[in-house]
Each structure stands twice: as structure tokens, then as C-alpha cells.
Design goal:
alpha/beta, nine-stranded mixed β-sheet, 13 strands, binds adenosine-5'-diphosphate, binds 1,6-di-O-phosphono-beta-D-fructofuranose
């Protein structure tokens, strides 16, 4: 079974504003609301690809209610814990030539809330996958992901972490099955600017030396690099197409990769499915559908 955790899910409010004026009164020409948060996006894409999974995490308030309604509508299996106080966040995605994002803070979460989540995870068995994706609320200890990976990796559960900076670095000694920084996040860890596959490879290997079993580095329109636990380095060129909304492309890539790996057991196929899922989402307004992903996969 695959479980995704989204500690701080969101409603993504995507607005298009022509000629956005800072400090001025702007009106949007288009607006959409999507359910969001990295783990939830992974669950949505896995479901689209016919891979059984369950989305876990915390919701609160009227926005939390809408998150649950949208997950039900998408027929994604979920078991979110409802917090008594606060409201799930609204993340603003402003499209005006460039993409600008303002991600909300979210409700107040405490360590005691995490205990309930850990109890839900006790049912996991060896061979299951646990996907930890996105930022964690500022009220939780910064070692939250680290503690979860430490506990569950040692039980033979394949942990996948999509996070940034210390949140990512600190899980490495506990042998996560996969991490997926993008090339900017990877460069940030080493105070470097990485622009090509060749530049990315040695730094991806450094994260592997620190303990990650497999390192997938996404590079937006430039494709991706994968360093696998059997010592292979695989690269994939970027896929050409018209980008409509790249929010969720990274999450789609993680989901596609895991779906491809689960079905084939082959890293090359997994990378191809990850690429197809990431790019199919970048080429759509919302997350891509299973059909769009498979159609792109067959063209690669
Ligand atoms: N501009 C783009 N053109 C084509 N594919 C894209 C583009 N942006 C993202 N993708 C696809 O989505 C994947 C993840 O995107 P990326 O932006 O690197 O991740 P993140 O959203 O985590 O920053 C890429 O490896 C690629 O497959
Ligand atoms: O948890 P964070 O880091 O604030 O990110 C949450 C945001 O990330 C997303 O999951 C999209 O992530 P990606 O574009 O990196 O795939 C949005 O749906 C959500 O608003």
C-alpha cells in the first residue's frame, strides 16, 4: 500500500491577472480553486494512474471541509485528522507572465496531533511506501520528517521525501528510498547554481553518499537526472510543450515515478513515467489525467 502524508494541505487559488500592478487594484481574468499540498497531489496522480493509495494528514475549518469534499469528488481514499482549531491554508498562485506564489501558514499543529497520525501509520507493512511531501507547519519540531523516516525505514517501509533544505538533509542518514529535489533546491544545499545534467550528477551523488538510496532531480523544462542505488545514472531530456500551469508538476513526477516503479520494478521505466506525469501536468491548467500521462508516456 502507498500512504501519502500532507501535514499542511491547501486550497490552491490560481488567478490570472493581465499586467499585474504592485500596489494597484488588479482584477483577475481567470480564477480556479484546486485542492493542493504536495502529498495530496501525489495521491491524486497515483489515483489517476490506477495505483491504490491513501492520503493522510490534517485539515481544519471551512477550507479543510472543502479539501475533503474535493478529495471525495476525485474519489481519492483519505483519512485526514480534523483539528478543532484554525483553518487549512489557502495558497495563492498568481499568473501574470511569471508565476508568483504566496503559500499560507495553516493551522496550529502540535506534537500530540502527530501521535494520532503515527497511530494511523502503525498498520503499515514491510514493502509499503510512505510519501512525505511539502513543508511542515512552523509549530511542529523541525525533525518531524526525520523522526518518521527513522521509525518507518527501519521497518522496511520505502520512505519518499520531497522537501527542501534541512528538512531534506536531515532524513538522509535514515536511508529514504527516494528524494526528489529540483535542481535549484539541490544547488541551494551546496551553495551552487546547477544548470545542466552534468553539473547536477555529482551533487545528486553527494546526497546518495549521505544516505539516500535513490536521488531524482527534476529540472523543469530541462528534464531530470536519476542516480539509483545500483550505481546507475540515468538522464532524461526535457519534453517540449506549451506550459499552462507548472504547479504540481514536481508532485506529479514523484507520483509517476512511484507508479512506474511499482508496476515495472525498473528505474528507467519509472523515470520515463515520472517525466510523462510531470510534463503532462505542466501542459494542463490542473493536474494531468491518467489518460494524458499515458498518452505522453507512449510518445517518449
Ligand atoms: N516547463 C516545463 N516543460 C516541460 N516539462 C516540465 C516543465 N516544468 C516541469 N516539467 C516537468 O515536471 C517535472 C518536475 O518539474 P520541476 O519544476 O522540476 O519540479 P518542482 O515542481 O518540484 O519544482 C520536470 O522534471 C518535467 O518532467
Ligand atoms: O507545502 P509547501 O511547500 O508550502 O507547498 C505547497 C504547494 O505545493 C504544491 O503542492 C505544488 O507543488 P509543486 O509545484 O512543487 O509540485 C501546491 O499544490 C501547494 O500549494
Amino acid at each position: 500500500m502507498i500512504y501519502t502524508i500532507t501535514l499542511n494541505p491547501s486550497l490552491d487559488y490560481v488567478v490570472r491577472v493581465n499586467d499585474f500592478q504592485v500596489g494597484g487594484m488588479n482584477r483577475c481574468s481567470e480564477e480556479q480553486i484546486y485542492v493542493g499540498g504536495k502529498g495530496i497531489n501525489v495521491s491524486l496522480i497515483l489515483h489517476q494512474l490506477g495505483i491504490e493509495n491513501e492520503a493522510l494528514g490534517f485539515v481544519a475549518g471551512f477550507t479543510g471541509g472543502e479539501i475533503i469534499r474535493l478529495l471525495d469528488k476525485a474519489q481519492v481514499k483519505h483519512n485526514f485528522i480534523t483539528l478543532k482549531e484554525g483553518m487549512s491554508r489557502i495558497n495563492m498562485k498568481l499568473k501574470s507572465g511569471e508565476e508568483t506564489e504566496i503559500n499560507g501558514r495553516g493551522p496550529y499543529l502540535e506534537v500530540k496531533d502527530l501521535i494520532e497520525l503515527e497511530q494511523q501509520l502503525e498498520c503499515m507493512k514491510e514493502g509499503d511506501f510512505l510519501i512525505l511531501a511539502g513543508s511542515i507547519p512552523s509549530t511542529l519540531p523541525s525533525d518531524t520528517y526525520e523522526q518518521l523516516v527513522k521509525k518507518f525505514s527501519s521497518r522496511g517501509i520505502a520512505c519518499i521525501v520531497d522537501a527542501t533544505k534541512d528538512l531534506l538533509l536531515n532524513v538522509l542518514p535514515y536511508g529514504p528510498f527516494l528524494i526528489k529535489p529540483n535542481h535549484h533546491e539541490l544547488g541551494e544545499l551546496f551553495d551552487m547554481e546547477l544548470k545542466t545534467h552534468e553539473e547536477v550528477i555529482p551533487y545528486a551523488k553527494k546526497l546518495q553518499e549521505k544516505g539516500a538510496r535513490n536521488v531524482l532531480v527534476s529540472m523543469a523544462g530541462l528534464g531530470a537526472v536519476l542516480v539509483t542505488e545500483d550505481g546507475t545514472v540515468l538522464t532524461h531530456e526535457g519534453i517540449d510543450g506549451k506550459v499552462k500551469n507548472s504547479v504540481g508538476a514536481g508532485d506529479s513526477m514523484v507520483a509517476g515515478f512511484i507508479a512506474g516503479y511499482k508496476v515495472s520494478g525498473d528505474f528507467k521505466e519509472a523515470l520515463k513515467m515520472g517525466m510523462a506525469a510531470g510534463s503532462a501536468t505542466a501542459f494542463e491548467e490542473d493536474l494531468a489525467t491518467g489518460e494524458q500521462i499515458k498518452s505522453l508516456f507512449h510518445k517518449l
